[in-house]
Amino acid sequence: DDGMAVGSDEDEGVEVRQKVVQIDLKEQEDFDRELKALLHESLESRKSEVRSRSTTLNMKVPMNVLESSKDPRATESESGEETVDEEGGNAGGGSKVRVKVLMKKGHKQQTRQMFIPSDSALVQSTKQQEAAELEE
Amino acid sequence: EEPPSGAGEDGYDYGKGDFVEHACRYCGIHNPACVARCNVPSCRKWFCNSRGNTSGSHIVNHLVRAKHKEVCLHKDSPLGETILECYNCGCRNVFLLGFISAKAENVVVLLCREPCLNVNALKDMNWDLSQWCPLIDDRCFLSWLVKVPSEQEQLRARQISAQQINKVEELWKTNPDASLEDLEKPGVDDEPQPVVLKYEDAYQYQNVFAPLIKLEADYDKMMKESQSKDSLTVRWDVGLNKKRVAYFVFPKEDNELRLVPGDELRLRYSGGTSHPAWQSVGHVIKLTAQEEVALELRASQGVPVELNHGFSVDFVWKSTSFDRMQGAMKTFAVDETSVSGYIYHHLLGHEVEHQIIRNTLPKRFGAPGLPELNASQVLAVKSVLQKPVSLIQGPPGTGKTVTSAAIVYHMAKQGQGQVLVCAPSNVAVDQLAEKISSTGLKVVRLCAKSREAVSSPVEHLTLHYQVRHLDNSEKSEMHKLQQLKDEQGELSSSDEKKYKALKRATEREILQSADVICCTCVGAGDPRLSNFRFRQVLIDESTQATEPECLIPLVLGVKQVVLVGDHCQLGPVIMCKKAARAGLAQSLFERLVILGVKPFRLQVQYRMHPCLSEFPSNCFYEGTLQNGVTVNERQTSGIDFPWPVPNRPMFFYVQMGVEEISASGTSYLNRTEAANVEKIVTTFLRSGVVPSQIGVITPYEGQRAYIVNYMSRNGSLRQQLYKEIEVASVDSFQGREKDYIILSCVRSNEHQGIGFLNDPRRLNVALTRARYGIVVLGNPKVLSKQPLWNSLLTHYKEHECLVEGPLNNLKQSMVQFQKPKKIYN
Ligand SMILES: [Zn+2]
Ligand SMILES: [Zn+2]
Ligand SMILES: [Zn+2]
Questions:
Q1: Which residues pair with A102 in a beta bridge?
Q2: Which of A66, B171, B256, B507 lies 20 to 30 Å from B130 when distance is taken between CA atoms?
Q3: Tens-place pLDDT, residues B153-183
Q4: Neighbours of A20 (CB within 10 A)
Q5: Phi and psi (nearest 5°) for B562?
Q6: Which segments of chain B have a pLDDT < 50?
Q7: What is the pLDDT of residue B636?
Q8: pLDDT of residue B759
Q9: B284 within a domain of the structure (yes/no)
Q10: Angle at the Cα of A57 (from A52 to A58), degrees rounded to 5?
Q11: How far is the CA of B523 from the centre of ligand 1 (A)?
Q12: Alpha-carbon distances, residue B294 vs B28, B280, B284 (angstroms)
């Protein structure tokens, strides 16, 4: 008898009047100092370590892996690809670029696909590079 | 050996809201895309990539503070479960790692800054070394590798400060498993942290309330387990369900907790020459007026029915209700779907933008089968239906049950799923269930397993009754097994298994087909409801529940909550003084009121003679209480009682007798008052009032026991008449009414405070139980020191109802009042 309509059940975005997060400057300074110290210490220890070990460096770009990965079927893909794809769209606003992350699993080389924002520093640098090469 | 108690009741997993393993150890965020694990073997804690209130993100904060340097990604992250390391040399120090990209392809790789990035040999290859992107940038992990949680996620997470981070990191150095809660843990002798009005987040809320609930639980356990009684005499009976029932008197001393139906007791026989030792656990199913306990035993075999003397009984304490409160708080904190975002912030006292529920309102606000609603009730229903959070204040006799039932009716008709209706007490739940059922809605009353044998006025609505009486051939298998179980007392283990499975399925089916499910607040934590979600929840008597108790029905997915109650009447009973002092006795309703939520007040009372409502209305409800009953409707023709003013059925009977400390040393009694209570009762009975119309109330257990005893020994009428009169504490009378109330104040001591009587809410309850007439007995000299009592006495005096002398010759009293003191003891 009451002609009820179904109420909207969405949790319509809650508007919480937020206090402005105030970072304690002293805390931040303190944190930065520790971070810097850690960085410095890491670098120094690596330098001495590497010198003493005189590591040989082997950083060939594994063209075989990359070549084969041009054919999607041959990509050494793992579950990661599917899950990532959903986020490939422009849903979140800024456009994204698909990259392959080269990794080692044990001694095997493999790639994983990822989407990174096209405005990220990493993509920007590649683009510039490409542009520069085109000009040449 | 005892069979295990009710299926599922024990061994229930409260871990529904358990901390997910990969939750950020600082803030609790557990979105796999947003977290990473510290890979130091002794640590392996997860952290998120949000900054919260600190300068660095949580994961970076941890790495810096703990000087840990290795990180592993979550298996559901884009790169899968991967330890971040240099592609070339395997270096895992995240502070040295960064991405570089290949010159031509869209290929990136992690490379360490030292030495790999600086090696000349690489320069000729395909890599672009000029743009090395550090993994940690601006004190945060690259957000496309480890996502930054959304603002919404961050708002609902624990709000941890930099100081807390430093403290907990310090703690982890000696105790890697410590939690943030350990930081706040008070020492054994410390006063617990008091409740506050606003909480940063649900973790802080839990940090405050969990220790208080623990204190109360410990106290309750200690109290109840110390209640063993020996040398009891037992008489035996068999119940309708063929179970053994033991009857015995459980002597009760002052201030001890009363037994209630559903309590579990262990009955023991320590063994003698004629019979070996025996014991069995059972549930209290009934308490007679003579304080005889009926205990239904769980095991029928081997009961020494030939014996009657020498039994002992112990209380079997159950942590269930406290466990469920703790569980609800945990769920509230870690499960973001437990309540809507709006309600989450609202309950924590955050400022939330006003929200309106867009529902088509019904044309009529009443409901079928219920009395017509009055104007304030209609307004209450209307306003509630449009708000996600509402408070309804129902002063005594204002019809809050009818209003609640109408609200539930309209909620159920909105098609948002089942409505959950709760109250802290079983009595209130039964009343509501009955009213809601009369609107034609399908109501299921869910009782605790321990109370299934306790008779209920809404038995036909209970789940256990419906399971037994479901008329369905498919269920005949279950009924056959049920019958077998009833007859033999137990089933073979395979039959028992089959029976339990069938029963569970039937219970589920019945629960799912209900429009409304009614249970106590604690009952909402019943495992049988664990897979149910309720968007709409109404809690009656919510001012008598502690906050964590109120939370139990809410964390099942609530989006719209209605709290009904009256913060001007008594709040929840807290036994542990420490917990009460810290504020556990403050209800959620009350806190919301203090936070500025305006309760909707029902304004027309249908209980009291207008003379009786005048003082409470002015004193407790700013004079807003209107009378829905007329003087004529409360006229008592044929009752010849010596009211000092004929048309005013009330008086204050001046008593100068001294108070005494009761035998137990923990309570008070007042013999003169007790003797006069008997005289008043006798006068009522002689004038034609029947015992069930009279209620005697007193704040003190010592006086209660003394009056019961005194009347049955000294009453000049038939003893049975006095036995039928209910003598109870003020507190236990809340929510109920009698035609005539006699209130014995007891305290009569010039030098000490008036204790229990000091609480205005207790006075309000005491004064608002009577429909036709009230007699107050007390010492004005003592009571007038307290401002509220002073005004009550003045009120009686002004109306020429302050009297003294023998009942058949009452004279106005000229006793002097004392100046009220502003201090409260
Ligand atoms: Zn760590
Ligand atoms: Zn975090
Ligand atoms: Zn390296």
A1: A111, B109
A2: A66
A3: 888 898 888 888 988 998 888 888 888 877 7
A4: 4
A5: -120, 120
A6: 1-17, 254-255, 824-825
A7: 77
A8: 85
A9: yes
A10: 155
A11: 41
A12: 48, 14, 6
DSSP letter at B586 equals S
Gap from CA of B62 to ligand 1 centroid (Å): 6
Closest-approach residue (CA) in chain A for B368: A1
| Cβ–Cβ under 8 Å, residues B334 and B23 | yes
Mutate to test the interface with B, among A1, A11, A83, A109 (most CBs of B within 10 A): A11
Contact (CB<8Å) B108/A101: yes
- From the CB of residue B493, how many other CB atoms can be counted at a distance below 10 Å? 8
pLDDT in tens, A83-113: 333 343 334 456 888 888 888 777 777 888 8
A94 near B CB under 8 A: no
B773 CA to middle of ligand 1, Å? 72
Q: Are B247 and B300 in the same domain? A: yes
What's residue B430's pLDDT?
96
Smallest Cα–Cα separation from A68: which of A77, A56, A78? Answer: A77
Asked if B362 lies within 8 A of A4 by C-beta distance, the reply is yes
Domain assignment of residue B579, yes or no: yes
d(Cα B336, Cα B61) in Å, to the nearest integer? 24
Number of A to B CB contacts under 8 A, please give it: 216
Mutating which of A59, A105, A118 best tests the B interface, going by the most B Cβ atoms within 10 A?
Answer: A59
Burial class (CB in 10 A: 0-12, 13-18, 19+), B387: middle
From CA A91, how far away is CA B321, in angstroms rounded?
Answer: 46
Q: What is the pLDDT of residue B152?
A: 86
CA terminus-to-terminus distance, chain A:
79
Report domain extents, chain A: 22-57, 59-136
Indicate which CATH number applies to the domain containing B665.
3.40.50.300
Contact status, residue B357 vs residue A7, Cβ threshold 8 Å: yes
| Partner residue opposite A103 with nearest CB, options B87, B91, B342 | B87
Q: Name the residue of chain B whose CA is nearest to A118's CA.
A: B144
- The residue segments making up the domain with residue B652 are 605-812
* pLDDT greater than 80 at residue A22: no
Q: Are B782 and B656 in contact (CB under 8 A)?
A: no
Q: Give me the residues paired with residue B335 across strands.
A: none
Taking the Cβ of residue A12 and every Cβ of chain B, the question of whether any pair is shorter than 8 Å is answered with: yes
SS (H, E, C) B388-449: CEEEEECCCCCCHHHHHHHHHHHHHCCCCCCEEEEECCHHHHHHHHHHHHCCCCCEEECCCH
Residue B521 lies in a domain: yes
Choose, out of A6, A8, A9, A105, the residue to mutate when testing the contact with B (most B CBs < 10 Å). A9
Helix, strand, or coil (residue B36): strand
Residues B624, B584 share a domain: no
pLDDT of res. A51: 57
Q: Residues B284-320: pLDDT tens digits?
A: 988 876 678 999 998 877 888 888 888 888 889 999 9
Say yes or no for a CB contact (<8 Å) between A100 and B105.
yes
- List of chain A residues whose C-beta atoms are within 8 Å of the C-beta of residue B53: 21-23
* Least trusted range by pLDDT, from A20-24, A34-38, B407-411, B697-701: A20-24
Question: How far is it, in rounded angstroms, from Cα B525 to Cα B448?
Answer: 10
What is the DSSP secondary structure assignment for residue A16, as one 8-state letter?
B
Give a three-class secondary structure readout of B635-698: CCCCCCCCCCECCECEEEEECCCCCEECCCCCCEECHHHHHHHHHHHHHHHHCCCCHHHEEEEE
Tell me what pLDDT residue A133 has: 59
Å between B78 CA and nearest CA of chain A = 6
* Least distant ligand from the CA of B25: 2
| CB within 8 Å: A99 and B101 | yes
Q: How far is A51 from chain B (nearest CA, A)?
A: 9
pLDDT at residue A78, rounded to an integer: 40
CATH, residue B242: 2.40.30.230
